[in-house]
Amino acid sequence: xxxxxxxxxxxxxxxxxxxxxxxxxxxxxxxxxxxxxxxxxxxxxxxxxxxxxxxxxxxxxxxxxxxxxxxxxxxxxxxxxxxxxxxxxxxxxxxxxxxxxxxxxxxxxxxxxxxxxxxxxxxxxxxxxxxxxxxxxxxxxxxxxxxxxxxxxxxxxxxxxxxxxxxxxxxxxxxxxxxxxxxxxxxxxxxxxxxxxxxxxxxxxxxxxxxxxxxxxxxxxxxxxxxxxxxxxxxxxxxxx
Length: 241
Ligand SMILES: Nc1ncnc2c1ncn2[C@@H]1O[C@H](COP(=O)(O)OP(=O)(O)OP(=O)(O)O)[C@@H](O)[C@H]1O
Description:
The chain is α/β, with parallel strands linked by helices. The protein has a single domain (3-97, 162-240), classed as Rossmann fold (3-Layer(aba) Sandwich). The protein is built from 7 helices and 10 strands. Strands 6-7-8-3-9-10 form a 6-stranded mixed beta sheet, with helices on both faces. Strands 2-1-4-5 form a 4-stranded antiparallel beta sheet, with helices on one face. Strand 4 and strand 5 (70-71) form a beta hairpin. Helix 3 packs parallel to helix 5 and helix 5 packs parallel to helix 6 (177-192). The two termini are 20 Å apart. It binds adenosine-5'-triphosphate. The site of adenosine-5'-triphosphate (ATP) has 12 residues, from strand 2 and helix 1. Keywords: ATP-binding, Nucleotide-binding, Transport.
């Protein structure tokens, strides 16, 4: 196995002087291909900052981010942008589906923006929607979908194409527990295909789906544990060894 992403002594400081905030401080985190890591911690502890830096949407103040063996600081802006578009899928808290596009068009859009021809992009999008049990919803617009369906479309959009890393910020926050579990199951299933995942959650039940839980406090990574016994780990005795 190799690391899909590594954060090496990553710090992020906002502001300066009296208003300085150390959102992250010397965080080391490595996530292997196929591994799902849950990030927990109090409000303001740096969870969203960690995701935006892992997603290369923001640069760290200090430290290195290495995606699929490539140090981002060494890449040109253009190569960095390409790596971001091709390798990383994001699931945002509020789904961020475009209201004027159908479900399948939303899923296909990032591929089309990345130069895949429309027909091929739509076919790839349909395949993922089908895998997520949404084939019959493909032609619907976001306002014709339930919350759980919208969330699954957002996940389909994040996994379509050849992603290596999925980043999800509270993907189950707005969902009832059954839909939330379904979302976590999808993230796990992506892991079975070798895709790494980092998921921010406040919910210990959701975190129990992860291979590993890391805790942030005041921007520092304070602890790493195997999750409490949950639906998966009960079936995997080695997880408690
Ligand atoms: N753009 C910014 N400018 C200044 N400070 C920021 C900025 N973004 C985040 N911060 C600060 O950095 C710290 C970490 O914020 P972050 O959003 O990462 O926390 P979080 O753990 O995700 O919180 P929550 O659970 O409430 O979403 C907080 O003190 C926050 O106020």
